[in-house]
Design brief:
Layout (H helix, E strand, L loop, with lengths): L1 H24 L5 H30 L7 H26 L3 H8 L3 H105 L5 H4 L1
Length: about 220
């Protein structure tokens, strides 16, 4: 799995490097070339998003205990992607020298003031957009952490359940062993009592036999 993730990483690095170079060129291009370049960058940005989705799927397949490092890398890539999209938006609204001169025309001061105001409004919109994107990324990161925490908690509960079952089985085996020991002890005690009684009875019989058949010392007869 890690080899697939690393392959996607390499593709993402190459693709984002190309996008960065093209974004830097967009404001300086003539209108026709600019339009074509914008379409090309949009296509590559979509490819980069798909690579991020593939990497995200790969990370979700990693066991939770090994997922932290990959999750951090994914957050970094998503931040890089967000920056590329912001830079791309800025490059699209940046005016080339030709467009700027056309807007200024004869009334340079008035047109320039309008252009400055327009830039300020667009910059304000971009700032709002960036804040929304950052909030969205934070929410996404928080959701991901919540999902990972839930998965870890579920695994811990499963492990505790398995351990509880093992302890229960061990207790049952211990009770069975205690019961068997009790039975064996009672049997052994009974056997010892029976053996003691047998020895006692045999001893009593021998004493009675001696009393019934006394032996005469022959030496005394002489």
């Amino acid at each position: 799995m890690s080899s697939d993730f690393e392959g996607y990483e390499q593709d993402f690095a190459v693709l984002t490097a190309e996008i960065t170079g093209k974004i830097a060129r967009v404001p300086r291009l003539p209108p026709d070339e600019k339009k074509q370049m914008v379409a090309n960058v949009e296509k590559q940005l979509e490819e980069a998003r798909e690579l991020l989705e593939q990497m995200d799927l790969e990370v979700r397949e990693i066991p939770p205990q090994s997922r932290g490092m990959y999750s951090n890398r994914m957050r970094s890539y998503k931040q890089e992607m967000g920056k590329l999209e912001t830079d791309f938006k800025r490059s699209r609204i940046a005016y080339s020298d030709e467009v700027r001169n056309e807007l200024l025309g004869d009334d340079g001061n008035s047109s320039e003031n309008q252009l400055i105001k327009l830039r300020e409004e667009r910059a304000h919109l971009l700032d709002n957009t960036e804040r929304l994107e950052r909030s969205s990324r934070r929410l996404e990161a928080g959701y991901q952490i919540a999902v990972e925490t839930e998965q870890i908690g579920q695994e811990m509960l499963e492990n505790l359940s398995h351990d509880r079952e093992k302890i229960q089985r061990a207790r049952e085996r211990l009770r069975e062993t205690d019961a068997n020991l009790g039975k064996s002890s009672r049997v052994l005690t009974g056997m010892l009592r029976s053996q003691s009684l047998t020895h006692f009875l045999l001893g009593s019989d021998e004493g009675m036999n001696r009393n019934k058949n006394p032996q005469v010392d022959i030496t005394l007869l002489w």
